[in-house]
Structure formats: structure tokens, C-alpha cells
Amino acid sequence: MVAAQAGDQDSYRQLLEALLPALRRIVQRRWRYGDEAEDIVQDVLMSVHVSRNTYDPGRPFGPWLMVLIKRRIADMARRSRLRPSTETIDAEFLETFSGQDTKLEQDHSDDRSNLDAALDKLPQGMREAVRLTKLEGLSMEEAARQTGRSEGSLKIAVHRALKLMRDYLERDKSA
Amino acid sequence: MESNDIVTKLVRDLKPTRRLADPGSRLWIWLGVSLLYAGAVIAYMGPRSDLNFKLAEPIFLFEIAAPLLTGILAAYGALSSGVPGRPFWERIAPLPAAVAWIATIGGSCWLSFTRVGSGALTIHLDPICFPAIVLAGLVPAILLIVMVRRGVPLYPTMTMALTMLAAAAFGAAILRLFHTQDASIMILVWQIGTVALLMLLGAAAGRRTISWQSA
Fold this sequence. Notes:
The structure holds two protein chains of two kinds.
Chain A: H1 2-5, H2 9-30, H3 37-50, H4 61-81, H5 105-121, H6 124-135, H7 140-147, H8 151-174
Helix pairs in contact in A: 2-3, 3-4, 5-8, 6-8
Chain B: H1 3-13, H2 23-45, H3 51-54, H4 58-80, H5 89-92, H6 94-116, H7 129-148, H8 156-175, H9 184-204, H10 206-209
């Protein structure tokens, strides 16, 4: 890690490659609530990268790393608590919500307000994922950098968010 | 993206980084700047007229030392909370000083009550307290927020609560040097109340102020 702080890419690669299997083992042992273990591993890798300036060579590396792992697991647990427990992953991505060609101006306005309402109902993490990738048009990579989340976790968040929004909209329509 | 791809990308993006100084060294910087600012605030507001006389009273000195120590230890806790692997006690270090501060003021309230009766516990409006503590703690707060954001957002709520406790307790200590309000109940309600409120506001803003996005 000391060499990595100095910008030595070879040492950094060796460190991360050596860490990866250990990280997977530790996270899989500690995270038993879903299939996000690999997302957490990726979050930890990103955290190691952005936190590398805080490593003090005078102190042991293990406890430094363990704190990052524990905090990223806690972050994922908090994000998971925000998700509705009944949701399931749908293999199909929802591409569009409505056809645009045959609509009146009023219909467009209604669609917009319904979409805004559905977006507001989403948990914060999902809302942010949709806002960045669908409304602001960022790539997954850019959005991941901005949120500090892994691309995999963002993709899942967007996918789940779109499904939830579709459910909200269908519920509103049938009400 | 696979984890191995992330490793490749992180290695490719690696640049030399300046190691963050230890919390103790950063605390000295914060304290030095904050004391200089406190001197400027006291000069601007004008020191209280009986300051020389009050500085000879041990209880007055203790009532200043306790919030000052609370502020310094809270700042140390805030700086330490952004460094992975630092011991837990560093984050709760301000607790004994804060308890001593509240106990001293509370004890003075009780003494006043036993001597004077319920009249000693009358609470008046003291509208200067809140803005004065905010003014005296403004630069220490801004500086400490900038410093803690250089660390890792491990415990954002606690870090921001400690940051605001540090700045507000520091401000409350400095306030005693230019504001002639010595009634214990007033100090308890308005000064300690303001510090507690600012600390709660800091905790509430923790996740918005310090996050992995800002790291």
C-alpha cells in the first residue's frame, strides 16, 4: 500500500489481486441477505482506492481494511432496508412507458406528472440511480463514479427502480 | 463490470497521493487557526468589562476550560473518525469533558437554587447567545468540515455531530470572554442548548455533507 501511495501501479495491482479472493471470502461470510456480495466487494475496492491517502504505514493494514469492509457492508444493509421486501428481479428491462406519437399536449403533461410522482415514491438510492442515468443521461461508469457505487449495483438499482415505477403507474391507472 | 475489470481500471487510474497527516497534527492546525479567529472575534465584539476580575475566579476558568476541552476533543474525534482503523475511544473522547461541563453548570444551578430559591432558576430571553456562538464557531466549523471531508466517510452522522460539537463548544467558551451572562440557568439553557442544537443539526446533515461522492 505504501508503494501504491507513491503511484507504483505494479505493486498496486499485486495488492488488489491478492486482496480480491480474501475480500470475497470475508464479504460472503458476513453478507447473507441477498446476492449483493460481489457488489459489496466492488464497493470495497473503490473505497480502498479513494481512501488510500488515509493509510498510515505506522499502523497495521488489516484493521484499516476491515473497517472499510464493515462500513461498506453496513452501507449495503442500509440501502437494502430501503427496498420494498416484495420486489423481485424482472429479466425484462422496461424501455418506454408510453407511445408519444398519438398524444395530445394534455396527455404528455399527465404522463410527466405521473412519472414524477412514481419517481418520488422510489427509495432514495434508486431515485438517484434513475435521475443520473435516465434523466441526466450519464453513463453507468460516470454515475458509478459520482455515487461511489459499483456499476453492477447501479444497474440493479435502475432495473429495480424501473420495475417499481411501472408497478406504481399501473396501480395508479387501475385505481 | 466484473471485479477484475475494476481492479484493472483502478490500477490504470492510480496516481501518487499525499498521505493524510495524523489527526493530532491536523488538530493543531485547526486549533491554531481557531484561536487566531477567536482573538479577532473578541477584539471585534470587545472583551467583557470585568474580564480581568473574572479571570481570577477558578470557577469561571473551569467554566471556560470545560467547553474548550470539549471542543478540542470533539475536533480530534471528528478528524479521527475519517481514518479507518483508529481506536473507538478517540471518537468518544469529548464525552467526559462534555459531562464535566454540563455537571459544573448544573451544579451551579443547584447551588443558586439552594441559596436564592426558585428565583435563581428564572429563564430570560437571551437572543444574543445563538448568533454569538454561531459567529464565534463559524470559522472553526467551516475549517473542520473542510478537514474532515479529506478523510473517509465512515461514520458521516457521528463525524458531523462531532464537528458541530467542536465548533459550537469552542464558540461557547469564547462567548464567555465577551458576553456578560453568568447566571448558571441561562448558560445551561441558552449556551449548552445552542451547542446541543447545533450538534443535532450537524448529525442530521451528516450524510449530505460527507459521503463517498465527496471522498
